[in-house]
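Model it.
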Amino acid sequence: MMGRRDDGQGQFFYAFDLDKVVPPDHLVRQIEGVLDLSWVHKELAPYYSHTGRPSIDPALMIRMLIVGYVFAIRSERRICAEVRVNLAYRWFCKLGIEDKIPDHSVFCRARHERFRESDALRRVFEGVVAMCIAAGLVGGEAFSIELRRMWTRKSGHPVTSRLLGRRQRRHPM
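Modeled.
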């Protein structure tokens, strides 16, 4: 006999523990074992105002950036989307199942505008990555560059232009 799922209302309350869902050998658990972000708030405090609406917690921002770095997620929009749906990433970011994920535009603005005139966020992030490299969790040998391929009108050959505004270089097809 063919079984059917009951499409009733379902449970009203759920007992859900993210800690039980994330496998013990998952990379985020290993990184969490060596990660100490207790100093991040003190280091970045001068870049935050004492008035206005609260911004994204800098420790959360660093954790989300680590997820992006370790799992090769290059877009801030994609990082936010992945943290929204991936339970291991939520656990690593210290977010509960019902906690809101920062909107990608707020995340991007907080990262770029708040730290535009200093290298504080870069120093913090490099310190965290150095901890992970020292623990043997991240190799540090690979990198990615954001490039855009354009066609020149005159020669018809492709030109790769760095989005950062640096000089253009021709690449053979």
